Fold this protein.
Amino acid sequence: MHERLSFYVHRDSPLHRLNPLTKLTMVFAFILLSFGSPWYWTPHILIVLVILPLSFIGRVQREYLLTAARLIFPAAGFLFLMQSLFQPIGQTVWFRWWVLEVTHEAVAFAFVNAARIIVMVSSFTLLLLTTHPSELMSDLTRRGLPSQFAYVIISTLQIIPQMQAKAQTIIAAQRSRGLDTQSSFVKRVGALVPLVGPLVFGSLVEVEERAIAIEARGFTSSHAKTSLREIPDSRFDQILRGALIVSVLLAFVSRLWLS
Amino acid sequence: MAIVTLQNVTYKYPLTEAPVLQNVNLQVNEGEFVAVIGPNGAGKSTLCYTLAGFVPHFFKGELTGIVEVAGVETHQSSLNEWVLNVGLAFQNPFNQISGAKYTVFEEIAFGLENIGVPRGEMKPRVEKALALTGISDLADRSPYSLSGGQQQRVALTSILVMEPKVLVLDEPTSQMDPIGTREVFGVIRTMAERGMTVVLAEHKVEWIAAFADRVVALKDGQVLLDGKPGEVLTSPLLEEAGFGISRYTSTARKAKEMGLWKKDQLPVTLEEAVEGFRS
Amino acid sequence: MNIIIRDLRFTYPTGLEALRGISLTIAPGEQVAIVGQNGAGKTTLVKHLNGLLQPTQGSVHIGDWDTRQHPVSKLAVRVGYVFQNPDEQLFSQNVGMEVAFGPKNLGYPAEKVDALVKDALALTELSEKTETNPYDLSSTWRKMVALASIISMDTDIVILDEPTTGQDAVNVRRIAHVIAALRERGKTVITITHDIDFCAENFERVIAMSQGQILLDGPANEVLGQEEILATTYVDPPQLTRLGLRLGLKETVRNQEEFLTAIRK
């Protein structure tokens, strides 16, 4: 039984209450700033002074820090290591070993790139943690995103755990018929056929029946769609979005100015 | 007044050789509750898809004859207009979950959002529908976390909430527990009394006898019998043709041979059987 | 082969307490039907019989085997389990190969596999369809293929989860015929069902479950006559039992023969 089908953590916080589009704007603003700002330390400052505090404001610091520790920082660390070692740039050599050459410039480049990756993944993580997927999609649909597109995204998010559950049932049925799926690698590979067959057939039936079911509920109706959820879009949201866009523009203008 | 009219309807799926429906004639009046019975493969599901417009609009294939609902002929309409008049729920509840919603409440509202019902109207309509089918307590659950029987109630509610003129149901209670089934038949009866026209394909003869106005027996794509439950469900033709009949009827028939059932008419419901055996 | 369940409790990882203290003994060759409302824990219970689920507390023994000490694929020698939806297990090119899959997994020699397959196909009236692809059959017949593919494993215990769902009268009779044949062979048959008339006509012992516990357990006539208790788990007595109750018959009846005998008195 999967009650939890997305990253979303249901809590009440100022970040949860923001309009989804504001949060989406925030995500893209942070990414653009970290890549586009002329100032080297921008992504690092964003991580420490904006993203980390935001996770506390959104009351999802525990979930965020866990994801960061398990996924985001290890990935960024790996990227940092690879770029430091293999980036063939710079003259200020710190040390040299075999074919490897570590230069000051490469390390600096890797350090900012790793930070940019952290900004990118972290801001998306915060968005997903504090925004209900239906809310995000209905807000975007209301603003003109085609509803078919929104449907594909949402149903895909839900279908992954459903496919897992279905695969579990099929494995259970085949194990009940004496199929050994646990002892050796060869047996596991051999067990794929009796698993994949029913999964594929089931999916074909499912696609057809689901198409009928949503069609029967007026999915392609020519009426303008409405939304059950009322998604607040406050004055503060609008100002915040404006400010974010202005700051991105400023960053790009100053970059052009300086170059 | 007839709201559903089928005249000489014959239909063949694109990939099959033989027609699944053959020369079917059927009229259903407004507010009537018609049950369709028949062995598997008799064409019950295809008949449901035809009434709901998915034959021919979705499945393609060759449809001849006239299919008319609420004064509109199927060939002259498109599926997205047709479904506003005719609602469909079918057997597999899992595949009827939209996948786009995270709670039962949102799931029920999905259809209303699609046809542009204003938000203010939506909430009370969903709440009313949930109460009607007895699943108000499931409103905040994920539709995927429910049992098959509960999911079937959600599928039914999702269609009821749209208030179609004609409700088409294909074995909507197959995974429900016995009293749950009886309750849902009661809900369907209520809808018919409020003026909704219902066509229901089912095997559960006891509840058909107790709740439906009329029974159509389908065999090999053709209408074998069409009439009041008491006539159709007691016809000797049914058992010969492999239909399920209620134990009240089969037992009274046997009792009649033994001289233990005195009436001419055989019973189809518990009440009729009680009354007949008492006299 | 005995089934012994001692104070079985099971809680799903989500925290849902599905079984709350089940103790049960089923003797070899018994025919048991399990009834009860949606979500009563019926499927959770039978999934413990072949080790698909392990007790959170208590124990399940199949003969001298504790289910915790044997993998599902080994328990399959003793317990066959027919899942509700045949489409979640059928994968072979033809019916014959599908039905042979189980006995082959159990490591039986080729001649024995052939004999078992032939017998299972005959019993389920599928002999003519041996070479057909299961997916070219109607869902009614696919259900029979799933049934045959477990019968061919020749286990002492056979579990059926909702065998009559969505089936027409002819096929329900076919399934009843298979269960009768298994009874004659001395097999234990355990069936979960919502079809209470089918239950009354084919099973000698009935267990009614509610909210993870056993509500009633005993000979079919005793259990099926308890109209008020059954109602608490959303089950009606069988049609003829209700008729008998309404007519004030002294004993509880559950099939045509019993009813006619009682009414003659």
The domain at 28-42+155-264 of chain C is CATH 3.40.50.300 (Rossmann fold).
